[in-house]
Amino acid sequence: MARVSGHTIMNASARARPMSTMVKAITAAASASASATLPMPSRPAFRTSPATPAAATMPPGFTATVRQLETFVLPEQVSGSVSDQAMASAMVDAWRRDGILQVSMSQLQRRLYQAANVASKRFFGRPQGAKNASVDSRSYAGYVASGEEITDGLADYSEIFTVTKDLSPRDRRVARRWPCHGPCPWPDKDMKAVVGRYMADLGASGETILRLIELGLGVPTGSLTRYTDDGWHHMRVLRFPSRHRTNGKGKDGRGIGSHTDYGLLVLAAQDEVGGLFVRPPQQGEKFNNWQKSAAGAKENESGWIYVPPVPGVFTVFPGDMLQYMTNNVLQSTPHKVGLNTRERFAFAYFHEPNFRSVVKPLEGYNGGQAPVEGIHYGKHFTNMALRNYPDRVTTKRLVAEDRYRMLSSPELRDDGAS
């Protein structure tokens, strides 16, 4: 284990923990059971103080703990080695304690992030009319204007370009009018190429992290990755205005309201400005977003931690599907974004199941959690899109053409992934 820029670095090839600690971690991971009764990890001994420079980036008007997060260096491949298993156990502990962890970017990943950031700023700098034209009525891809997205009934100030699976109009799924399926309305070929390369790289990291989670939970290899074949991976390219340059549609200082995310994993990267807050797992708190909306939950209460920007890392936290599949051992992390004194740019990549997948509890983690028949990911994603974008052209077309009904058809459901 090493310390880099004040953060704990876990590196598989460097033997991240002393051997005695490794053996304990591996034993604990291998004995994880269906009852979802893994003990909650203790708080880390290392914490930053509100007086540190990191806290100085916190958006004004917010109060939160500033906690130093564990940072991991992913192995090039997951072989199931002793060091892999130690890292996997440590990652599960970090999520159960903090709700979030950091992964160190490789040099290639830094270059891809920087190129994508340039493309993002170029797009958001376009005239409003040009941005408004980047919308498709079949998919939820494309431009989302500030104030268009709704969280818990309130407009968010975020300005977004969403990238979903980019499908040709001639694709069978598009031709048959599957909900949410369609082309991505890229503004130009350059942004498509740059953001596409960035997403492909994050997708590879997502698969590596899922394999490590399988090790950390003690479930068979492929228990998670079998769901991600042709996964419904997507990304939100985000711009937040400065708190003093908003359009009056939302709530003072709020960029995005408290919510959890839909799928398996969220891999996010932010610039140097800062604005991300997460809510770690807490005794007595559980948000089953697939049953009752978690939007706005605990948004104005204490218990949040601020995630200060750190150069050269991306953050990772679990989504709704992992919470359901692990019977709350890994909980979907509530998070929100505050507006800062400068505009802020960020990326949120979602590593997801196949749209048709009906996800089921993992082996050893089936405690009879509802719904007992599993969760149809495509229906869950569509429900969230309808809730967040009630007035979008895509929603209106989906409703007018009765596309939602198709989600119950065998063509759009794969119950075999169990």
From TrEMBL:
<dbReference type="InterPro" id="IPR027443">
    <property type="entry name" value="IPNS-like_sf"/>
</dbReference>
<keyword id="KW-0479">Metal-binding</keyword>
<dbReference type="InterPro" id="IPR044861">
    <property type="entry name" value="IPNS-like_FE2OG_OXY"/>
</dbReference>
<feature type="domain" description="Fe2OG dioxygenase">
    <location>
        <begin position="231"/>
        <end position="353"/>
    </location>
</feature>
<dbReference type="Pfam" id="PF14226">
    <property type="entry name" value="DIOX_N"/>
</dbReference>
<dbReference type="InterPro" id="IPR005123">
    <property type="entry name" value="Oxoglu/Fe-dep_dioxygenase_dom"/>
</dbReference>
<dbReference type="Pfam" id="PF03171">
    <property type="entry name" value="2OG-FeII_Oxy"/>
</dbReference>
<dbReference type="GO" id="GO:0046872">
    <property type="term" value="F:metal ion binding"/>
</dbReference>
<protein>
    <submittedName>
        <fullName>2-oxoglutarate-dependent ethylene/succinate-forming enzyme</fullName>
    </submittedName>
</protein>
<dbReference type="GO" id="GO:0016491">
    <property type="term" value="F:oxidoreductase activity"/>
</dbReference>
<keyword id="KW-0408">Iron</keyword>
<keyword id="KW-0560">Oxidoreductase</keyword>
<dbReference type="InterPro" id="IPR026992">
    <property type="entry name" value="DIOX_N"/>
</dbReference>
<dbReference type="InterPro" id="IPR050231">
    <property type="entry name" value="Iron_ascorbate_oxido_reductase"/>
</dbReference>
<dbReference type="GO" id="GO:0044283">
    <property type="term" value="P:small molecule biosynthetic process"/>
</dbReference>
<comment type="similarity">
    <text>Belongs to the iron/ascorbate-dependent oxidoreductase family.</text>
</comment>
